[in-house]
Structure formats: structure tokens, C-alpha cells
Write a structure and sequence with these properties.
By secondary structure, the chain is α/β, with parallel strands linked by helices. Helix content is 42%, strand content 11%. The strands form 3 sheets. Strands 4-11-10-9-8-7-6-5 form an 8-stranded parallel beta sheet. The chain has a two-stranded antiparallel sheet with strand order 1-12. The structure holds glyoxylic acid. One of its GO terms (biological process) is aerobic respiration.
């Protein structure tokens, strides 16, 4: 077993162990991938102020997100098809998150169903919903999440239409994977992945197939997503969905201060500054550049979470210093899952936690809740002077 020291090491292992089609699904942005790249590279423009001779004993990263205690202010973001990255992937990731003490978010487009994840966990998780036209299906989905004890829903606002990811089209992405000569040749080299998949019955979209009208055959799912997403989504519909749920709501995909104000006006419990990991609007600003403007607009009115581009504890600390109350990670935990299953997700969380804790200490802080903008050196034009 190689020595794993950082998230990038997990990515290397992940790439070796998981079929190309699913690695590509995770490791892609839309079109030219400009935003996908800048989400990570823009963190490099922020620097820390190193402080010395400060008492570093008794440090804590414990905090709260939407009123829930967390071991560190990090939640696992919803990621589609995770059960294709590793057998029973969503169950495994949810268990690792629960053990670590951070929230797990289940995607509507997961392989393991809401009920599967509830059966194998003992604490409430968050559930992500897209905005779909079919009210019946939305109500049933929310009802299932309620019965499973989910403590919040995360409504994805930035995927009414899908940003094209070239690799998925070229690979013919599907779940279960289509058997073509090249997919068979590639899967044949992924032995532990294949054995895991043979050992589970969960190989298609568990929240959808058999639950959404007309979707009994997984092959019809791509047409279902193209037809079912609500292209007419507006703020009135967001309000309706919030009322339909009636509990805590996190609105994800906010990149503009005006949208942040609308979300705060609706009384969302939190918003997530996110460009969907660079998978939707190619050419949008990186999330980290968008964050300060949104904090300025609504930071005192709604909890602001951050997502897109986090690959280290240093990145987490930078987002918190700019005013985020917590962050979501997506690829960083999927790499761990694909590399080593449940233990890999735990490894991702351990790595991020250690980096976060040590970096906080070297910036002269002992309590993550006390960290503020003062620890950062931010270039004057970081958020841009855009005409
Ligand atoms: C789904 O939300 C995706 O980005 O693939």
C-alpha cells in the first residue's frame, strides 16, 4: 500500500482502480473546463499570514452547520452515481461521514436509495433534490426523505439544463455501464471494483427507477433527466418546494449577490456559493472569487456555505476566512471512495482535518470559529473589477 499523504494521492489511486467512464464523470467540467480549472487554481492567489509565538494548545475545529454540531465545518456534497465509483458507495460514504461527525448529502441521482442509506446509518443525513416538473414525484421524494429522517434538503438551483461534459458523451456514460468492447476492456483491468459490483444488487439509480413514472428501465433514464428537469424554475417555484418540505432548506448554486439576496429573502437556512464544481456554466467565476461579494451582500442574514474547488485543509481555511460558515467537498471524498471504499472516505476526511487544524495553528488560531479575514493576504483585485 503506498503512503498516502494528501488528496492528490487518493486521486492517483482512484484513477487506477475505477473504470475510466466513472473517473471521467467525476473529473470533468463542462465544455472548455475553464471554470473547473480556475475553481482550484484561484485558491493559489490567496496567501496566509504566518504568526508565531502563539499558544497552540487545545485547538478545536468543532463548529455548527445549520444548527447541527460538526467535528469540522465540512459536509459531503451530493454527487451523482457514487455507487458506481465503488459498490454501495453512498452507504459507505455516509457511514464514514457519520463516524467522523460531518453531514453527508445524498444525491437524488444516487445509486443507493434514500431508504438504503437510512438503513445503514443511524444519524440524519441531508438529501439533495433537483427541481423537477413532476410534483407527484417531488412530493413522494420529499416524503421518503422525511420518513428516512433527513434533517435538511439541499435544493440544486443551477441545473435546470445541463452543461455539456464532452467526456461523458464520448464514453457513453450510463449506470449500469453499457457493455461495449472498449468499456469491457477497461473494466476488465479494474478487478476489485468489478468484484465489488458483482457483490451488490445496487447498480442503477435507486431513488428514481421504480419510483418515477415511466422509468422502469435504466436505459430510459437519460431521456427522463432531459425531460423531467423543470426548465421553468423561478423563485416562486423555489418557495413552493421549500414549503413542500417544511423543514431546513439549503439552496445550492448561488454565484451572484442578487440571487443570494433572493434566497435570503425566502428564508433559506443556508445558501451554498457553488458553480457545481465547474460542471455547469463554463466561464463563470471560480466560487472562491465569488464568495466575498456574496458574504458582503447577505453574510449577516443567512448562513453562507462554500463549494467548488476544495482539495485541501488550506483551501477550507481560506474559504472560512473569507466568511463562509462551512464548506462542501465533492471530488475530494469521491477520490477517497474510489481509491479505498469507506476507509478511503475516512482517509480523505482525516487528511483534510489534519491540514485544516495545522494550518489554523500556524496562522495563530486555536478555535476554527475565531478565524476571520485577518489571517489572509488577499490581492486587491481578487474579486475582480468587472465592468
Ligand atoms: C450532477 O449534478 C452532475 O453534475 O453530474
Amino acid at each position: 500500500m503506498p503512503v498516502i499523504t494528501c488528496i492528490d494521492d487518493l486521486k492517483t489511486l482512484y484513477r487506477r482502480r475505477v473504470p475510466r467512464m466513472f473517473y471521467d464523470y467525476c473529473e470533468t467540467g463542462s465544455w472548455s473546463e475553464q471554470t473547473f480549472r480556475e475553481n482550484t487554481s484561484d485558491f493559489d492567489d490567496l496567501h496566509f499570514r504566518q504568526r508565531v509565538a502563539v499558544d497552540m494548545t487545545n485547538r478545536t475545529t468543532a463548529s455548527r452547520m445549520i444548527g447541527q454540531d460538526v467535528a469540522m465545518p465540512v459536509a459531503l456534497a451530493p454527487v451523482g452515481l457514487t455507487g458506481m465509483q465503488h459498490a454501495d458507495g453512498e452507504i459507505r460514504a455516509a457511514r464514514a461521514a457519520e463516524r467522523f461527525g460531518v453531514p453527508f448529502t445524498l444525491s437524488t441521482l444516487s445509486i443507493c436509495s434514500i431508504e438504503d442509506v437510512a438503513e445503514y446509518t443511524s444519524k440524519p443525513f441531508w438529501f439533495q433534490v433537483y427541481t423537477l416538473k413532476d410534483d407527484d414525484f417531488m412530493e413522494r421524494l420529499m416524503d421518503r426523505a422525511r420518513k428516512a429522517g433527513c434533517s435538511a434538503i439541499v435544493i440544486t438551483l443551477d441545473l435546470q439544463v445541463q452543461g455539456q461534459r464532452h467526456k461523458d458523451l464520448k464514453n457513453g456514460l450510463s449506470a449500469p455501464p453499457k457493455l461495449t468492447p472498449s468499456s469491457i476492456a477497461n473494466m476488465a483491468t479494474k478487478v476489485s471494483w468489478g468484484l465489488g459490483m458483482l457483490g451488490t444488487k445496487r447498480r442503477t439509480f435507486g431513488n428514481v427507477v421504480g419510483h418515477a413514472k415511466g422509468v422502469t428501465d435504466p436505459a430510459s433514464l437519460s431521456s427522463w433527466t432531459a425531460e423531467a428537469f423543470d426548465h421553468a424554475l423561478d423563485w416562486a417555484r423555489v418557495k413552493e418546494l421549500m414549503e413542500m418540505w417544511g423543514g431546513k432548506v439549503i439552496l445550492k448554486g448561488i454565484m451572484d449577490p442578487e440571487d443570494a439576496k433572493r434566497a435570503a429573502d425566502l428564508g433559506a437556512d443556508a445558501i451554498v456559493v457553488s458553480n457545481h464544481g465547474g460542471r455547469q456554466l463554463d466561464g463563470a467565476l471560480s466560487s472562491i472569487r465569488a464568495l466575498p461579494g456574496i458574504i458582503e451582500a447577505v453574510g449577516d442574514r443567512v448562513e453562507v456555505l462554500f463549494d467548488s474547488g476544495i482539495r485541501s485543509g488550506q483551501d477550507i481555511l481560506k474559504a472560512l476566512a473569507l466568511g463562509a460558515k462551512g464548506v462542501m467537498i465533492g471530488r475530494s471524498w469521491v477520490y477517497g471512495l474510489g481509491a479505498m471504499g469507506e476507509a478511503g472516505v475516512t482517509k480523505s476526511l482525516d487528511i483534510l482535518h489534519k491540514e485544516l487544524d495545522t494550518t489554523m495553528a500556524l496562522c495563530g488560531h486555536r478555535d476554527i470559529n475565531q478565524v476571520d479575514r485577518d489571517i489572509l493576504l488577499v490581492p486587491e483585485d481578487f474579486t475582480g473589477r468587472w465592468a
